[in-house]
Design goal:
Elements: H1 14-18, H2 22-31, H3 43-51, H4 71-81, H5 103-111, H6 131-141, H7 164-173, H8 192-203, E1 224-228, H9 234-246, E2 249-252, H10 272-278, E3 300-308, E4 311-312, H11 317-322, E5 329-336, H12 344-352, E6 356-357, E7 361-364, H13 369-379
Parallel strand pairs: 1-2, 1-3, 3-5, 5-6, 5-7
Antiparallel strand pairs: 3-4
Helix pairs in contact: 3-8, 4-5, 6-7, 9-13
The chain binds flavin mononucleotide.
């Protein structure tokens, strides 16, 4: 199973090959491209991306290895590789015309958080992709895995904050190697040959199988509950890890009307979240169930939620207001892209009115099981 879906081989135009001069013909024999010699460091990668339908030549007989790879092209490559699914949601960037060949790709990629644009509402599709942008895009496409961490690059302080974790991941996995002098060169452009090499490595990268920690001795059965709301799965992963670390039971807070990608698009002023955010009276999200079985048996209740606009996402509120927490220890936790937990735990405690609420914990959206385990251990439940 490869990371980029097989899209079918590119058919070479034989007639054009036959019409080439002798020198070119030797190279074509080797790689299929007149400008890619079989000895070139990127030859194998170029053949791979061509044979797997990931990148095409710029003509039937040339690959143009030194050419530019644009941001729009990278979006189009990943979108094609994902089977060109129907697009809903996503940002309408001011400089992406509906008719552009990459229009659906950019919308799809922004709806899935694979690309973000610039603060001024543009995507700048024709800009050459930089090495740190490519790292960030592939990392998000891979599901934002947690890197191992390790040594810094000599030019670490020139890597933008948004790409820092992605660059660590790209180095750990070997998908993007550094340049001479232990530099990452974050703003260097990724020429087509380099893009081919990176995409080849990405597609043949086997994500490590996570080590399964020895099970902790489970606390008394049924005494811990991990209740959570999660719109896109990040809080759910943390909730699962807390339940694994504490032997707790999981209880998902599921809205009767789940939030779709389009509902969650906070950059769209007509989206459901923006409407509910701007109209607090409309935030009373009906849940499929408010109280788990055996509620009375739980001594410790974790309450998890994503941060929305610096506060607890409101679908969690029904759970907090509908239950009596008297005699229970309540521990809030949240995930967010960058904001802290802020006052959200205190606010939920106020809404509940009962229970002994401890200080909560914020996890980054891509928190690892180890991060969660370390925190759960520190609680000494
Ligand atoms: C409507 C909305 C508002 C958000 N607001 C913030 C915010 O203020 N600060 C932040 O760091 N992240 C914010 N995020 C990002 C989420 O907190 C983050 O992706 C979280 O991990 C999502 O958790 P989930 O996958 O469990 O839904 C927001 C996301 C959405 C959908």
């Amino acid at each position: 199973m490869r990371n980029i879906r097989r899209m079918g081989a590119v058919l070479m135009a034989l007639a054009l090959v036959l019409s080439m001069n002798l020198t070119a013909f030797a190279a074509v024999e080797d790689t299929g491209f007149a400008d890619v010699d079989a000895d070139d460091w990127y030859a194998e990668a170029v053949e791979y991306v061509r044979d797997h339908g990931i990148m095409n030549g710029t003509t039937a007989t040339t690959f143009n290895p030194d050419g530019t790879t644009s941001r729009g092209q990278i979006a189009a490559i990943l979108y094609r590789a994902s089977g060109s699914p129907e697009v809903s949601g996503g940002t309408a960037f001011t400089d992406v015309a509906d008719t552009a060949y990459y229009a659906d790709a950019v919308r799809w990629a922004s709806a899935h958080g694979v690309v973000t644009g610039y603060g001024d509402g543009t995507f700048r599709p024709n800009n050459p992709i930089t090495r740190q942008q490519l790292a960030a895009i592939l990392w998000r496409y891979a599901g934002s895995p947690a890197p191992e961490g390790g040594a810094d690059y000599a030019d670490e302080d020139t890597i933008s904050a948004y790409a820092s974790t992605a660059v660590d991941w790209a180095r750990d996995t070997g998908i993007i190697s550094g340049r001479d002098g232990n530099r990452f060169d974050p703003n260097g452009r990724a020429a087509r040959a380099q893009a081919a090499v990176i995409l080849h490595r990405y597609d043949t990268w086997e994500p490590p199988i996570p080590e399964i920690p020895d099970p902790e001795p489970a606390p008394e059965e049924g005494s811990v509950l991990v209740a959570y709301f999660s719109a896109t799965g990040n809080t759910e992963r943390v909730a699962n890890a807390i339940a694994a670390a504490t032997g707790g039971d999981l209880f998902e807070l599921t809205p009767v009307e789940p939030y779709t990608d389009a509902d969650l698009n906070w950059t769209d002023e007509d989206s459901r979240v923006v409407y509910e955010y701007e109209n607090p009276d409309e935030r009373d999200t009906e849940l499929v169930a408010y109280t788990p079985d055996n509620w009375a048996d739980y001594d410790v209740v974790f309450v998890g939620y994503p941060i929305w606009w610096y506060d607890a996402a409101w679908p969690v509120e029904g759970f907090v207001t509908e239950n009596d927490f008297t005699g229970k220890t309540v521990i809030p936790f949240c995930t967010s892209s960058s904001s802290g937990i802020g006052e959200s735990g205190e606010r939920l405690a106020g809404l509940a009115g009962t229970g002994d609420w401890l200080e909560g914990e914020r996890f980054r959206s891509s928190a690892s099981d180890d991060d969660v385990q370390a925190w759960a251990d520190s609680l000494d439940l």
